[in-house]
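If your schedule permits, I should be very grateful for your opinion on a structural question. Thank you for your consideration; the sequence and its tokens are set out here:

===
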Amino acid sequence: MSWDRQLDTASFRGVPFEVEQLDDNLVRRIREYRYPWRDGADLDDLGREPRKTQLTAIFHGGSYESSLSAFMASVDEGQAGTFVHPILGQWTARLSISSIRHSHDHRDAAVVLVEVIEDGTSTKLPELYSVSKLADEVETEATAVTAQNTSSVTEVTSAVTEARSFAANAADSVDQVTSQVNQVRSKIDTAVAKVRAAVDPNSYRLVRSLKLLAYSCQRLATRVQQIKPVVLEREVGIGMPLQLVAHKLYGDATRASEIRKVNRIRNSLLVPAGTKLRVYST
């Protein structure tokens, strides 16, 4: 079967699987002390309960049985292992499978309901990176590449320029972010090949910096896709200024600049009737 949705990838004990939905619970234990004839209560924080994640895993394709079997075996051994969450990072956990569903409508596929429970004490929650912070990370890596490019290799300079442009516009190009980051990575691959072909004992440092730049760009693209709302198509009923269009769609005329970037509108003073705009759903 073919799935018409983009699936995230998680893994447990090195076995990858695709995830359709994740629900994470972060509960703290609170002890209440209440007293007769006194309003309210005194509270003590007794610590965070282990993180719990309920997720829906999807196994599909002609050979889905082998990947499903590998996943089931990794869980059924009953051992703690590294769980890699597609958004929140990784931690040590134990997994249990509550349901494996096969459907006549979905041949060559299985939907598996899984509960992930954190294993360990004194654990820390991972940091969620914002788009702006990841864009800054790309800039930091780009600066490092430029510093290492002492021979001024043209392909390296071109890759850095492409990466910086991508970081500057990624937040406003969610519908094109995949193709754009692929273009960046292609230029970086070309630069790596050029540097490796040069006879320079220090070229490995530049290659490493280029790979870190590619990794930062990929992290930025992934984060943009995770937090940006769905892009929809809306038709303008009557001709009007772009600010009025933004007000009608969102109740916020200041989002006109956002619509303009997504659609590359040249004349914001008048959007003709019948114009089809790509806009965010929220």
